[in-house]
Write a structure and sequence with these properties.
Blueprint lengths: L1 E7 L7 H9 L2 E7 L15 E4 L14 H14 L4 E4 L1 H9 L3 E4 L5 E9 L15 E8 L1 E4 L5 E5 L7 E4 L3 E4 L7 H10 L14 H4 L3 H20 L4
Parallel strand pairs: 1-2, 1-3, 3-4, 4-11
Antiparallel strand pairs: 5-8, 6-7, 6-9, 9-10, 10-11
Helix pairs in contact: 1-6, 2-3
């Protein structure tokens, strides 16, 4: 059984469905609760892969959260060493900034709820997206976005957010959305982060819409996540 390092930044933003897939394949997610004061590991040695989860803070809040500097150092070392690395939302933004990209407020405003993403021109033939349709729905909860770092490959976009995913080489995948969420996680977010839903904006769905047909939506998302995560999971040894 391989150990996978998971960096968590919020009580309700754990690895969710991804943890189930890791366990199915004989891997063990080792969760470091940075939100509870756990120290950022010095390096990723001893782990078969690195997963970075979402969180409510900005990657640009190094003054308020000085551990972000250490986290980006860890991420940069992992990516440069070729370690399988996977980021979700804040995690994807951390990868972007750690590797020289930018993170800033999404020009179209927050994107919260169920919205489709579409393959970019580069994503059409990418091995990262094999088996996925041209466009598919995913769950979102973000106010900022990333500009992919130089040398990366943009993979997905949406009507409200130009950059939804990028890859670095054959081992690093950064996502803006949340394929890992389960129905329980979505419900928990609508309660724990209810204030985010009170801001009127084209990309902010009300809680009633977010939780409509939730079991089926999450079942469909899990089926898509199995395909999306597959190339990354194949890298783990």
């Amino acid at each position: 059984m391989s150990d996978i390092l998971v960096l968590q930044h919020h009580p309700e933003e754990g690895p969710g469905f991804l943890a189930e897939m890791l366990l199915e394949r004989g891997h063990r997610p080792v969760i470091h609760r940075l939100d509870l004061g756990a120290a950022v590991p010095q390096n990723g040695k001893g782990y078969a892969g690195l997963v970075i989860m979402g969180g409510p803070m900005s990657v640009n809040d190094e003054d308020r959260h000085p551990w972000l500097v250490e986290e980006m150092r860890l991420i940069r070392g992992a990516v440069e060493a070729g370690q399988p690395t996977l980021g979700h939302c804040l995690g994807g933004q951390l990868i972007a900034k750690a590797m020289g990209g930018r993170v800033f407020a999404n020009p179209a405003g927050p994107e919260i709820g169920w919205f489709p993403v579409t393959k970019t021109a580069a994503g059409q033939d990418s091995a990262w997206l094999q088996g996925l349709p041209e466009s598919f729905p995913i769950f979102h909860w973000h106010g900022e976005t990333f500009a992919p770092p130089e040398g990366s490959t943009p993979l997905l976009s949406s009507a409200l957010c130009a950059h939804q995913a990028f890859a670095i080489g054959q081992h690093c995948l950064a996502l803006q959305g949340h394929p890992e969420v389960t129905a329980a996680i979505v419900r928990a977010w609508t309660e724990a982060m209810a204030d985010d839903l009170q801001r009127p904006a084209p990309g902010v769905q009300p809680a009633a819409e977010i939780t409509r047909d939730l079991a089926q939506r999450c079942a469909d998302l899990a089926a898509m996540a199995r395909v999306l995560y597959a190339p990354w999971l194949e890298l783990l040894r």
